[in-house]
Give the backbone structure.
Amino acid sequence: MKHFKTNGLQIVRGAEVLVGMTMTMFFLCNIGMRYVNIGSLTGVLVFGMLLIHGLKPEWFASIDQKLNQSSFGRIVRKLIRILSLVILILAVLTTGFMTAGIPKRPDGEDRTIIILGSGVNEDGTPTYVTQSRADAAMKYMKDHPDSPIIASGGLYTSDRITEAESIKQYLIHQGIDAKRIYVETDSTSTAENLRFTSALLQKERLPKAVVISTSEFHSYRAGLFAARNQLDHRAITAKTPWYILPTCWMREMYGILDAWIIHRR
């Protein structure tokens, strides 16, 4: 039995090292590709700790033993365990909503097309994620040539054009009529994207039945804010490149928690 437990423990440690090393390198590569955000940093922290635990479990055992030597330490130890459990539950919940909470697919109705921005390159072109959302929307545009288009997204840095203007330029370059395209250039978050776009729909008297083009991991949160702004919404989902998906996924967990707790409209 003791031999069996030892072998089992070695397998667990080996799995920790393998997963920890692989995912830490994944997130570090994303940082090297300039995808530096709370998602990539969290990934490095979480999987880096997993890697260290697999390589040096005695360090964690020593810390746990020291905490257990005083009443205050035992309280801290208990709080750490509770916090870890809460984080794990929230991670599972937010992942579940990202996976299963995608709004309805487009129907045959002509709807206002909303493209949500996700960054601009230094040369003013849309990032790969933003471009993928525009590309996904263009497939819908071809079947709905009378549908107006709203490009939504403001400035992240002062030295670049807005996401909305970048998307508009990209669409025009792809042959889309500029007269169809409206821009919402003030938003800096998903909550503002949908709130300001809703106001623009009213101002320009555009159909409030909308189809939102965004990334698959982002569709749930976009739909949540669309519903809060009384928009009859459907979804077009753009695929995210596999090599940045973990960072986007991790970052979106924080976004969903923000939508649930802080930005309620």
